[in-house]
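Researcher: Please translate sequence to structure tokens.
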Amino acid sequence: MTEVTRTADGTGSAVDVAAEGARIAANVARVVHGKPDVVRLALVVLLAEGHLLVEDVPGVGKTTLAKALAASIDATVRRIQFTPDLLPSDVTGVAVYDQESRAFEFKPGAVFANVVVADEINRASPKTQSALLECMEERQVTVDGVSYELARPFLVVATQNPIEMEGTYPLPEAQRDRFTARVSMGYPDREAELAMLDDLVTSDPLASLAPVADAAGVRALVAAVGRLHVSEPVRRYVVSLVEATRRSPDLRLGASPRAGLQLLRTARAAAALAGRDHVLPDDVQSVAVPVLAHRLLLTPDAAAARRGAEQVVTDLLAAVPVLRGR
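Model: Translation complete:
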């Protein structure tokens, strides 16, 4: 999709979302081998102004994906290692009393960046995890009654290990609902693992990864994605999918209205990366599982039957009729 935007002096500049997205994805793929779908989803979340939760076993490249995406954008990047002793003020910032001016001065925390890598987010206490709630939803930080806006784009890429639960604190539903999508890296195929061995034994590819976009360019891409046409039938299809999760006998908690909004935003981003100026039901279906599954809570019977939330969403996609029209 190519769109002409107007700069401050009135001149036009072309924004090719598909081409720019392909450049960023190719750059990330230099480090993250054999995972084009995972890289594409991370890019979709970035263009949808969302946040990404990367959840998988240790050693499959969760942090590498987050750092490679951050390194591909010439913007401010902060990495927070979440530990049990991490304080909320370490994340958001704190007001410090200045003896000379006799006034409190705000010292920004690590969240004041365009890309925030929250490594092993479930190792911090619930109190520290909750420090991200306002940041992720409202893109601002409030300290001592004063609100400070965060720069845009603002993307939180969090990683967590779902297997080793000792010493961890599961993310509450309010926190999970603020993540636009969840992705699992999975193990690489044989060829990708061989290529990784060749690259990583002698050097670190991340160290030589140069940015291919900047913050202003990403803001222009996000604006272009937000202007994609979405027909009435597609909007109704999104609402039907969200409502179906609330009626499913396998779920005790369905998707929230926020989930519907983020499903539509990610579908817009997916359509733009495919080079189209309108959203199709196929775009909604392509992102429905990663956007919806992590928000859902299974009933005890469904959990006992070993039905995963991903399978429930897949079944709902097959059951909900697709409305046609533009």
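Researcher: Any highlights?
Model: The radius of gyration is 20 Å.
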